[in-house]
Design a protein that fits this description.
Helices cover 39% and strands 20% of the residues. By secondary structure, the chain is α+β, with helices and mostly antiparallel strands. The strands form 4 sheets. Strands 2-10-11-12-15-9-8-3 form an 8-stranded mixed beta sheet. The protein has a 4-stranded mixed beta sheet with strand order 1-7-13-14. The longest helix has 39 residues, at 37-75. The protein is elongated, with a radius of gyration of 27 Å. It starts with a strand and ends in a 9-residue tail after the last strand.
């Protein structure tokens, strides 16, 4: 996993691709529901920049020619005053053009950051989630002999979920788990980390929960999703919406010298304002502003990244298989892909109290989109330096997992039976009962 420093980085989709395959890029944006007119505007900026570079290079060549001419005239003792005046005018003109080049490059860079990644050819075209397709379903939905309750009623009766106090502490949209509930959260985190490290070949990291603007830009959260994140303005730091951000930036501005793939996993708290989520499900812990998540991140060669995506999905599914929960895998259509993803699978759990499927994992291949923005490259077997492909997936997010565990494991007497796989992490506890609910004194 050895890496060395990288020089200049590119915060953009490949400009050469956009120039040479304008129609492909425009169609990709259309498929994602983005404005295809941004391609035309971007190429206009790029054209102005390239013309300015040509103009300034011609003026610099002229300056070099005149400088040599002045030197030759001086050696002959001839008057060069008029030429020197023209040189000063030329220098001023070059300075003006250099400034315009810098301004245009900044304008181009800003425009490039707003261009989303293009969907992979295998991604079905569709406008929204209604066009997503079910790849597979696993596990059986439990048949209840009573009307299943929702997680809020179950958790409050057991004394393991206290949303009113969380609201008084912080505000709505923040969870508070108590006693065995808190232990369940910790047990799930430890179980998932152990699985991914021991059984799936990941290396665990413990990253910061805040990242700078460059890191957020590298993975594609900025500038597009600024309103959905918490910003500490005094320090220009952002609370991470997912461990994808710090873990992917592990190799930012570096050349990876070691063999690929590199697989990293991390637990972090995650923070999302979700400014655009008004009107969606907010009761309980289905949609919250702070939540725990175990994340998996891969750095791969372009040739193997789609095989690695399939294994990434299987790693996330393995968590749910061991927890004996019914789930399904969806392939997202183009219009439901995230800004940075080229292809994505969502994994959803069945929550009987909600009578709904709840997303607990998104597994995405970003190809070289994030690598270009963050300057992450690798040296291949022929010694050529290339951009890596980055992938990430939730392995998995905790709040909706706990919703599914409580609602699928509920019993008629109000207790909740836990999966056997959790017993080693719960001190042998296999059932949460009302009598065992431990509240603070």
């Amino acid at each position: 996993m050895c890496a060395k420093n990288l020089g200049e980085k590119k915060k953009m989709l490949d400009i050469k691709l956009i120039r040479e395959a304008e129609d492909k890029v425009r169609n990709g944006l259309l498929a994602k529901g983005a404005d295809p007119g941004t391609v035309r505007r971007l190429l206009e900026i790029d054209g102005r920049r390239r013309q300015l570079l040509t103009d300034v290079e011609q003026l610099k060549n002229t300056r070099n020619t005149v400088s040599r001419e002045i030197g030759a005239l001086k050696r002959k003792g001839e008057d060069t005053a008029e030429l020197q005046v023209s040189m000063r005018d030329l220098g001023s003109r070059i300075g003006e053009l250099d400034a315009r080049v810098r301004e245009t490059e900044q304008e181009l860079s800003a425009a490039m950051l707003l261009i989303p990644n293009l969907p992979h050819d295998s991604v079905p075209v569709g406008h929204d989630e209604s066009a997503n397709s079910v790849v597979r379903e696993a596990g059986l939905k439990r048949r209840f002999e009573f009307e299943p309750k929702g997680h809020v009623e179950i958790g409050e009766r057991l004394g393991i979920l206290d949303l009113p106090r969380a609201t008084r502490m912080t505000g709505p949209g923040y969870p508070l788990l108590v006693g065995t509930g808190a232990r369940l959260e910790r047990a799930l985190i430890n179980m998932m980390l152990d699985m991914h490290v021991r059984d799936h070949g990941y290396t665990e990291v413990w990253p910061p929960a805040l990242c700078n603007t460059a890191a957020m830009t590298g993975t594609g959260q900025l500038p597009k999703m600024a309103d959905d994140m918490y910003h500490v303005e005094a320090d220009d730091l952002w609370l991470i919406p997912t461990a994808e951000v710090p873990v992917t930036n592990y190799f930012r501005e570096e050349i990876i010298e070691g063999p690929l793939p590199i697989r990293l996993t991390a637990y972090t708290p995650c923070f999302r304002r979700e400014a655009g989520a008004a009107g969606k499900e907010t009761r309980g812990i289905i949609r919250v502003h702070q939540f725990d998540k175990v994340e998996m991140v891969k750095f791969t060669s372009p040739e193997t990244s789609y095989d690695e995506l399939e294994s990434l999905v299987d790693n996330a599914e393995d968590v749910l298989r061991r927890l004996e929960l019914p789930y399904r895998v969806l392939q997202l259509c183009s219009g439901d892909l995230s800004f940075a993803a080229a292809k994505c699978y969502d994994i959803e759990l069945w929550a009987p109290g909600q009578k709904a499927w709840l997303e607990v994992s998104s597994c995405s291949n970003f190809e070289d989109f994030q690598a270009r923005r963050a300057g992450i490259r690798f040296r291949d077997g022929k010694g050529k330096v290339r951009f890596v492909h980055t992938l990430n997936g939730s392995g998995v997010a905790l709040p909706r997992l706990i919703v599914a565990l409580l609602e699928n494991g509920q019993q008629a007497d109000g207790s909740v039976v836990l999966p056997e796989a959790l017993a080693p992490y719960m001190g042998g506890i296999s059932k949460i009962e009302v009598a065992e609910a431990d509240q603070p004194a």
